[in-house]
Each structure stands twice: as C-alpha cells, then as structure tokens.
Write a structure and sequence with these properties.
The protein has 213 residues and is an all-alpha fold. It is built from ten helices and no strands. The longest helix has 30 residues, at 99-128. It is globular and about 60 Å long.
C-alpha cells in the first residue's frame, strides 16, 4: 500500500508512523526529564534513548523547550492523550447538572492529574532559573491555565446553584490558585496529606466560594 493511501480512519501510513515516532520521543523525554532533570537531559540523550536520530527529534517535536512543552501536554492529558485537556474537560463540564457537580468534577480532576503533573512542574520550576526558554514556558502555561479556568468559571456561572459573588475572572483566579501544581506539592508532597484529603479540601474550598447556599 502506498504511504499516501488513507487508512480506514482517514490517516496515511506516513502520518501514523510520524505520530508513533513523536509519541516515542515525548514519552522518552518525560522519563528522562523526571529522572535526571531538564538541564542534565540533552536532545542527544533523548534521541539515543528513543532510538531515533537527533534531527528526528527536531523535525518531529522541536527544540528542547518544545519537547518539554509536549511532555507537559501529554502528562496532563494522561489516558486521554492526545486529546487536549480543555477539550475533554469542556465535554465533562457540559454534562454536569449544576454548579456543585462542576465543582466536584474540578476536584476530581485535580486529584487525578496532580500526582502525575506536579512532579514535572517541580522539574520546570527548577529549570526556569537556568533556562530562559523554560522560564517563558512556565509563564505562558500559568497564563494559559488562567484563561482556561475563565472558560470553566463562565460555564459554572451558567449552571443552577452557582454563586455570583465573584466576577468570572475572580472565580477563575480561585480555581487557578487552589488547583495549582505547587499547592498539591506543598500539601501532599511536603505536608504528607493523602490525595483523598487533598481532593476533599479542594471540593470544600471551591464549593465555599463558587456554589450558592
């Protein structure tokens, strides 16, 4: 079959192979970044571990900072990858019956994602002081999360039972702050909270601010 021929799902064999290569590179980079840190990991070591040429890493994913960005996306999405987090979270939120259900969904999501995401965020924070590209990535992703939570706050505000004491931007800031990876690392990683306690605290805190009496 020629490489340009479409498969039954509408993708060519070449596109499928390229996607598999990209996945291999990103998963390998994730393991190296988490195991030895960002600074100590080179494009060459990623390529060697992934079994590809150095140029393939650049062609398939990009620079080292772009590889880190792709790792962040994949780890955040988890089993839903490659579907972006905002896409599947919007679908889940649309199905929520009221504001309290959205709050529960957010608490469940943070309790699911942070055990795999927060350690990588520590890697990013450590590298940001040494690499301006990582520092920029960190700032951009914090800003992106805030924008995404503005969408969540707007959707929540339209649900029955929502409190309207805060603006959409203020409500987004509450979600952003309580659900930040560094908060999870402080409470669970350093203070010894269980994930279930963290989830319960999140739900209670978000509910106190975002759900009406």
């Amino acid at each position: 079959m020629p490489e340009s021929v479409k498969t039954s799902r509408g993708r060519t064999r070449r596109e499928i192979a390229a996607e598999a290569t990209q996945t291999q590179i990103v998963e390998t980079a994730a393991r190296l970044f988490m195991g030895q840190g960002y600074v100590a990991t080179t494009i060459g070591s990623i390529a060697e571990e992934a079994g590809v040429a150095v140029q393939t890493v650049y062609n398939s994913v990009g620079s080292k900072a772009e590889v880190l960005s792709a790792v962040l996306d994949r780890i955040a999405a988890g089993p839903e990858a490659p579907t972006p987090v905002p896409e599947f979270m919007r679908a889940r939120s649309d199905r929520a019956r009221d504001a309290d259900a959205v709050v529960g969904l957010l608490a469940d999501w943070f309790a699911e994602v942070q055990p795999r995401l927060a350690p990588l965020w520590d890697v990013i924070a450590a590298a940001a002081g040494a690499d301006p590209d990582v520092a920029r990535l960190r700032r951009d992703r914090d800003a992106q999360r805030l924008r995404n939570y503005e969408l969540a706050a707007r959707l929540l505000a339209a649900k029955p039972g929502a409190a309207h004491t805060l603006s959409v931007r203020e409500a987004a800031a509450v979600i952003w702050s309580l659900g930040h990876p560094s908060v999870y690392q402080q409470l669970v990683g350093r203070q010894g909270w269980s994930v279930s306690r963290y989830r319960r605290w999140l739900r209670q805190s978000l509910r106190a601010v975002l759900v009406g009496a």
